Amino acid sequence: MTNDNPYNFLPLQPTGRNETDTANTYAPEDMIKIYEQQFLIQVPEEQLTEFLPALKSFYDIDNHTLDVSAIIFEAIADASIIYNHKIKAGRYQLLEGLVKEVLEHDEDDKNDAGVDGIDGEEAQAYTLDCKRTFFINDVEMPYYFNLFIHGDSYSTLTKQDTLLEQMYWFASDGAEDNERLEVINTQLAALGIRAMDLATLYQIVDYVEENIIDDAMIETLNKLLDDAE
Question: Is 66 helix (H, G, I), strand (E, B) or coil?
């Protein structure tokens, strides 16, 4: 008996046929699923040349449909595909309240600002413990960090406990340490996430850094700062 779906493609309902009646059409959200499967389904190396034709045959689509699916993904998807991994930023949490910080100044700073450094009022500095949840191939990956806020500027200090945090520090170190990478990949495998090479790991970390703070979080932080002043 022949398996008509050896790669376990998602069953999707077409919306009709294209104008030339050469391929099925699908709803935008299903086009995204078709696009993602090109990268996320694990395929044995000896079957790589067979995979894409099998996908097109299963959904009865052509290359143009695949091109359109990529455009739709870029336009409306809330995730990114990095090589064979999908990463998505989830919700944030503010774990504690704002903590006032006292900044230390050297003598030059004091002289520049005036006697005792209070010639002009200096913005209060705060720290705040935060968490952002990410998803790699739909697996939840927590990411904890400390946020330092001073005036209109901020910086983050990543913790070093969770797997995603360890990936961040590995990339930050910039060392091509194959043993450390193997340890990370072993932990990823335990979560059902396929191994990453250095390029993939670095791009995953870049995504995390770009999405650690979003507009919704900034709006909440501004309200906290207003209430604290």
Answer: helix
H/E element holding 81?
Answer: strand 80-82
Location of structure tokens 């993602």: 36
- Residue 107: which pLDDT band, with cuts at 50, 70 and 90? low
Distance CA 184, CA 200 (A): 13
Residues facing residue 125 across a β-bridge: 101, 150
Q: Cα(165)–Cα(159) distance, rounded to whole angstroms? A: 6
Question: Residue 27: in which H helix or E strand, if any?
Answer: none
Where are any strands of DSSP class E within 95-138? Answer: 99-101, 125-136
pLDDT value at 54 more than 60: yes
Contact 138, 153 (CB under 8 A): no
Using alpha carbons, select from 46, 47, 65 the residue that is nearest to residue 57: 65
DSSP reduced 3-state for 182:
helix
What are 117-127's pLDDT values in tens digits?
A: 344 567 889 99
List the Cα angle 20/64/89 in 5-degree steps.
135
Q: How much is the pLDDT for 105?
A: 65
Q: What is the model's pLDDT at position 113?
A: 43
Please, which residues bridge with residue 154 across strands?
Answer: 149
As given in the structure block, the two tokens for residue 11 are 């069953």
Residues 6+ apart with CB under 8 A from 161: 144
What's the whole-model pTM score?
0.86
